Amino acid sequence: MRDGQTMERTDLAGYAATSASSRGRRYQEEFRDNRPAFERDRDRIIHCAAFRRLEYKTQVFVNHEGDYYRTRLTHSLEVAQIGKGIARRLGLNEELTETLALAHDLGHTPFGHTGEEVLNRLMEGAGGFEHNLQSLRVVDELEERYPNFNGLNLSWEVREGIIKHSSQYDAPVSPVSIYAEFLPGTVPSVEGQLINFADEIAYNNHDIDDGLKSGYINLAQLKGVGLWEEVHEAILRKYPAIEVDRGVCQTVSALIGVLITDLVNTTAANLQSLQIATQEDLRRVNLPVVAFSPRMAERNAELKRFLYHNLYRHYKVERMRVKAERYLAELFEVYIKHPTLLPMKHQLKMEREGRERVICDYIAGMTDRFALDEFKRLFEPYERV
């Protein structure tokens, strides 16, 4: 149910974030309707340019390798779907959860984590590069849609969730001047915490799906991974004549369900044992509450190790990683040497923000496809510019 005046959900748990308790936005605005704050933020993200570009930014497989594989966009949608399911079971704010899921990868570079590593190395001495901080920069500065301010002017709770997002591959290390606004040293909202796990559940299981479809890993290799093997055998017992591809799909789906159930049960127990009934309790206790059980965390870690060694370090993935390093490094270097190669709107920002940061922003905003095309335009003599 929703409040007739504010359109806010009335059945949320006391520890859930609400629009009424929001710390607000950086700029005052007059709104055309009474949508709750986090619903408005979700809609702003969906309509922004950085979100659309996620369609052609890579997860594991570079965009041109096939239309089947996950992209940053499909991954973000999957994280939102998983996150909302968890939030609903825990009485959390689904709209804040969905917003954080859709925003969590906005600052990612082309070519996945390789792009982030390359830009961080090239930006050494000029502020570095970290994709959570870049996501905040996108929503605070780089999007240009409104007449009176840069960025999307999102709620404080969304911006906190973005900067405090963390997973196996990203730890939020940000300049003190940036991080000071977001209660450094304190845990984010429960919604912000659960996105870390929804992200992990999504990419672990869907990377298995993509890895099997590509042929880079196979079912025989997965037999030694306890969590996968247990769920897959249960599917085969239930459907003994099922086709291989359908069996994989059913196993991935069931595995996501197993992980979600464990996460919900463990988190609910943590909230109860720590006597967290309100958002104030959460900040006072200041301990992470969203977690897998110790046994599930161990089994999930085994699954992650398998993917790291067998998929993310597969020789074909490594070959593309090496090529991607070259593409981005050479683009960065030629822009540094010849900044007039950039569109004029970016050149005009250099005096205010510095050449390196403007070039970093420009490259980070590229899709895989655009980066490859730009490389051709700048370095292949017969390519039209």
Question: Would you spell out the secondary-structure blueprint of this structure?
Answer:
Elements: H1 37-46, H2 49-53, H3 72-90, H4 94-103, H5 112-122, H6 131-142, H7 156-163, H8 176-179, H9 190-214, H10 219-222, H11 226-238, H12 244-273, H13 279-285, H14 294-312, H15 315-337, H16 344-347, H17 350-353, H18 355-364, H19 368-379
Helix pairs in contact: 1-4, 3-4, 3-9, 3-12, 4-7, 4-9, 5-15, 9-12, 9-14, 11-12, 15-18, 15-19
3D structure, described in words:
- With about 375 residues, this protein is mostly helical.
- It has a single domain, classed as Hypothetical protein af1432 (Orthogonal Bundle), CATH 1.10.3210.10.
- The protein contains 19 helices and no strands.
- Helix 4 packs across helix 7 and helix 9 crosses helix 14.
- The longest helix is centred in the last third of the chain and has 30 residues.
- It is globular, with a radius of gyration of 22 Å.
- About 0% of the residues have low confidence.
Summarize the structure.
The protein is 60% helix and 0% strand.
Question: Mean of residue pLDDT?
Answer: 92
CATH superfamily: Hypothetical protein af1432
Termini separation comes to 56 Å
**CATH C-level category:** Mainly Alpha
Query: Which value, in Å, is the CA radius of gyration?
Result: 22 Å
| Biggest sheet statistics | none
